[in-house]
Amino acid sequence: MSVKGEGAGRITLPEIDSTNAEGFRRASTLSGPTWIVAGVQTAGRGRRARPWSSPEGNFHGTLVLKPQEPAETVALRSFAAALALRDAFVQLTNLPQSFALKWPNDVLCNGGKIAGILLESQGLNTPDATLCIGIGVNLIAAPDPSQVEAGAVPPVSLLQETGLKITPNTFLDALAPAYDHWEATFQTEGFAPLRAAWLSHAARLGETIRARTGIETREGTFQTIDATGNLILRTQAGTLAIPAAEVFF
């Protein structure tokens, strides 16, 4: 199975536990890249296995791919997904200034979290490698701010912020080709153009942020992301390259 998502298949389900989980269950039967979209998720999850609110009317989807690159290269597709999400939002709303990208894997609308990305993989570096790019978008509803971690970016919905009511199918019609574009760019030109595009839309670039890794929190200036997607943070103790963290503004 090729990785490129152009012409990717679509499977639409009324209800499922998790589109990523369903992606892994179906991976061996898929003949090419495939989007799996559910009307409702009963066990949606975000990073660190946190529950992801999945009401009907929001977008809950997974793109299933069969990549053959090393794990560190496969992981860079989170940036392709983020760029595709922003492109889809801009196409549907014509509000380019409203949308920004938050490292490592969130999309913001007017400063609030509107979408999240969860990459999960199995069997990388084997012929049976599977990557599930899970995407959740608050199209019509967002969790109550009291349900998110203290200090986290407050969740918002597209309907709340723009007044536009976009259906999940309409959103996928914009998202799928946008992802195809960035996937093709990634395969032919590498990460450099994705990095440049991502940085051009990065939230809080050049500003003070906090990055929490495990039990340690570092504060500093968000300088850039490097050629491997690491967050580069300038602190009083020096410049750090951080591969994974929770970022707070």
Q: What is the structural class?
A: alpha+beta
Radius of gyration from the alpha-carbon trace, in angstroms: 17 Å
CATH topology of the largest domain: BirA Bifunctional Protein, domain 2
Major sheet size, sense and barrel closure: 7 strands, mixed
The secondary-structure element order is EHEEHHEEEEHHHEEEEE
Tally of DSSP β-strands: 12
Description of the molecule:
The protein has 249 residues and is α+β, with helices and mostly antiparallel strands. The chain has 6 helices and 12 strands. It has 2 domains: 9-200, BirA Bifunctional Protein, domain 2 (2-Layer Sandwich); 208-248, Roll (SH3 type barrels), CATH 2.30.30. The chain has a 7-stranded mixed beta sheet with strand order 1-2-3-7-6-5-4, sandwiched between helices. A 5-stranded antiparallel beta sheet has the order 11-10-9-8-12, with no helix packed on it. β8 and β9 (216-225) form a beta hairpin. It starts with 8 loop residues before the first strand and ends with a strand.
